[in-house]
Fold:
Amino acid sequence: MTTIAFVTLMFLPISTIATIFGSQSFSISSTVSAEVTVARNIWIFWAISVPLTMLAIALWYALIRRRYL
Structure:
């Protein structure tokens, strides 16, 4: 059960932020080559996701250490 909770803590913040950014980060051209371009501000996704994930893991670890979970 603890493993499932930990995996969820790893992916939940990232998937939430990815849902918010959604389709605005990538665009596919309609030409024959169908090139995929990445938005210039994709760094915002990582700047928000990584600290949020670290915060979730730190909170989980603190609660485990105090035996609240």
